[in-house]
Amino acid sequence: MSTSIALERVAPDTRIVLERLWQLYRHDLSEFRSSMVPEADGTYPLRHLPDYLDHADRAAYLMLVDERPVGFALVAGLETGPRSISEFFVVRALRRQGVGYDAAVELLRVHPGAWEVAFQEENPAAARFWRRIIAEVADTSYEERHPVPGKPELPPDVIITFDPNKVSTS
Known about the structure:
7-stranded mixed sheet; Aminopeptidase; globular; alpha+beta; single chain
């Protein structure tokens, strides 16, 4: 399926859309973390989500297909570098159809420069996804593992550092 993805920076009037997609994202992650359960009101906490809406060095993007929200990406390091994708989500109905790939490549194009992407091996789909994209857009990359700060019970993050050189910035 060929779909055309658009990235739209989250604005005050679209914040609620991001918060709703966040609930789906956290639910998906609960597959890997038995301690990740909803609060008493049935929702997952928004945690650091507001930091991406009110901070000059960070941004939240909605992924749109046919003007409908199908995912989001949270990006940090826009001013200080390196850029990093903190959270990345595509709704299940559109996974493995190129939406995530197109959105990731578009983020790299919109924000040229050095990047870091972190994920955990316990999420094999994320590991395959990011390694594939990085292999296609960068000639070299550096991969290392680091403990998750403040969360010793979690497996280490895999962090890949790279500078895309195969993404058109025109």
